Amino acid sequence: MDRGSSLEDDGSVRVQINGLRRLSETSGSNTIFEPQPQTSPGPRESTAESGYSAPAVRAPEKKLTLFALRLAIFEKAATGLGTLGFIWATVVLLGGFAITLDKTDFWFITIILLIEGTRIFSRSHELEWQHQATWSITDAGINSFRALRSSSHILVRAVKAMFRPCCLIRKQSQNTREITQFDQSRVGRWNHARAPTRAWISSDVPLFPYAQWVFLSRNISKVLYWLQLLSAIACVVLSSMKLIKHNYGEWEKGDSDKRNRKSALVIFYTLALAEALLFLMEKAYWEWKVIYCKLLEQVNKECEFGPAGMVSIKRFFYDAYSRCVNGSIFDGLKMDMVTFGMDLLVSNSADEQLIGARILRQFALSERFSDDTLQKLGINLSVVERLVEMLNWKDLQEEEIRKSAAEILSKLAGKKQNCLRVAGIPGAMESISSLLQTNRSSGDGADEIGEKNLILDHANYSFWTFNHLGLLILKKLARDHDNCGKIGNTRGLLPKIIDFTHAGETLLRDEKVAPSQILTVKRSLQVVKMLASTTGATGKHLRKEISEVVFTISNIRDILRHGQKHPVLQKLSIEILTNLALEEEATERIGGTGGVLKELLNIFLNQEMLEDPNHVRRAAGEALAMLALESKTNCHRILRLQALDSLVEALEIPLLRVNAARILRNLCTYSGAECFYQLKGVMAAAPIVLKAIMSAENKLQEVMVGLAAQVFKHMTSEESSMMFDRAGIKEEQLAEALVKILQKYYHPSAKVPRIRRFTIELAIWMMHDNVKNVYIFKELGMEKELEGVLETTAELESFNIFSGTVGLSRHSTTIHSLVETALKLLRDR
């Protein structure tokens, strides 16, 4: 009978298990032999899934946006005064008093206007050059040429604007912003065309032979900075001279415009002085915060970006400042580092993508900022799609971007909703598969394939790093039932994962082995285990696919044979075998692979391992019990290993006795009549079993009652009486204990789902063995208890094993039939 035949894949009743749980006699934790109800998520996960955000963490970049706001207030105030002064000079002074102005005043006004124009020009383009400085040095020549050309266009417009009517001044600033945006879009299109063409593009012609060295962005920005500073100082000096000396030229007596002309000049020089002073105050505030207080370095430290993060911090600040200056002064306050990083990530510029990837990677890995970052990333589908796309970028120059994208996705996949979004992107599994690079051959010499045949790190490329990240992403995605199906259906992905489970003797026994190699094996085993433990029709299909890969079982055998120094790997390998054994065909493959059963027995019966902190021996016992369940050939193989006496002795070892009893019961039940005499040695277990039934509880009592029902079938009445005497227990005492068990478990228990069945089986044997036992059971009220069982039977009691809450391997005899048999014996005799 196919053990998975009773599995259902009803979407409304789908239960996912998180692997096998540890067996504990005292705690009552479930194994594959008990139903495993779906556990509720922990407080942290439940909070995340319910839509509530994590507690807010103060963002370090708020200091930068606040600083940008304050600078913008200075800037806009100075710009307003400058605009007013420009209008006053052109309309009132040069327009109304141009003929009567003194030559000195005329040239002072002209010089001040030229200085103001120069300062306005340099001020408006310093930020643009600062942006250029954040780009890569290799592109410095072309980028600087673009910025220079853009600046020349705007300079021409600024000069023309000086001679336009004052009503067009506002339109000038609008045109300036449009030109800047146009230039930025042109730069984006240039960066998008990564591959060089055979012909020159007119916008890319390097007019200057050594432009990339001469026109460095950082040098030009310094020139513009000092030009602003000197022009402001000059404006202060000239305006102060006029305001202090009051020499506004000569005029004739009776000149009616004297008072008006003098007042107009005083107003102009005052406006020019106020604008220059405001600008100098802005620069002083800048120097104090940036140079003395080291604001940028402080924010960079709080963001945990490291030395390379200063480029990101500067770029963010300049963007925030630009928004405050070009739009509303509050526009910059709406910016945050995560959104900024996402905007850069989806851009067409390779340098911007790298900056964005660095920002998001650091915040996603940071304990302080991870929750907020992943929440924003998860709801932005375009960003997630770009991250998935980046996994396919295998160019050497894009290694850091690819690595950052993989690390971000590995964190993003840790949240259930984000996990579903990542897996739902078309081609996501293929992109993740591209991270895994192996060089395993599917031809001859498979047994000799070792870690040396896996692709090692290139001198300039970290293949192992991407292997780790790929397996980590798959491990987190595999927590979801549907994702497991997608992983199994992705062409070539499952064999890749299984390739990484290979660990030769050299690797496992080497004390100096690199931890990264062991980690790779561990993560691949974890992924395979999660896939093999999937429930429903999906799990059945995955177990079939995994077991059909020819390397799966042999890789696990090598770990069992040589992995004594790595018990975690052994436990994962054993749990994979236990899950695969849910399928009858896989059970036969495992038993038929030479050495697997032997290695499991060696681990389970290892006398040198007195303690089992990693629960490896328990896992091995559970795997053996599963492999012997309903498998006649595996039972014969285990018996040929001459381990029966050792299994009987294991019944007295607290660590092993539960699984030893399961193994022995399955051997007695499924070996067949031809092994009757081989199993005679199990008689020695009878005294141990009887004592355990009388004193134990819960799981131990259940398995011992089940074993007793099979052990006594291999004895005659005389032999069984001898065993009762050797145990110092009378049949009346055992009968009383069985009745009490039925009284205690009036309703079926999920922790011990078979205890009532085993109790009835043992009672039936006792009544067949000795008629006197029938009267004992009658006096003890067994008939009443059996009738109570008929009224409370449940489907829970009909199966040997469970996958989640779905029962597998149905018992051949129903519990109703057993009760009817017992009642018939009680009534007929």
Automatic annotation (TrEMBL):
<feature type="compositionally biased region" description="Polar residues">
    <location>
        <begin position="25"/>
        <end position="41"/>
    </location>
</feature>
<dbReference type="InterPro" id="IPR000225">
    <property type="entry name" value="Armadillo"/>
</dbReference>
<feature type="region of interest" description="Disordered">
    <location>
        <begin position="1"/>
        <end position="54"/>
    </location>
</feature>
<feature type="transmembrane region" description="Helical">
    <location>
        <begin position="264"/>
        <end position="281"/>
    </location>
</feature>
<keyword id="KW-0677">Repeat</keyword>
<keyword id="KW-0472">Membrane</keyword>
<dbReference type="InterPro" id="IPR011989">
    <property type="entry name" value="ARM-like"/>
</dbReference>
<feature type="transmembrane region" description="Helical">
    <location>
        <begin position="223"/>
        <end position="244"/>
    </location>
</feature>
<feature type="transmembrane region" description="Helical">
    <location>
        <begin position="77"/>
        <end position="100"/>
    </location>
</feature>
<protein>
    <submittedName>
        <fullName>Armadillo</fullName>
    </submittedName>
</protein>
<keyword id="KW-1133">Transmembrane helix</keyword>
<keyword id="KW-0812">Transmembrane</keyword>
<dbReference type="InterPro" id="IPR016024">
    <property type="entry name" value="ARM-type_fold"/>
</dbReference>
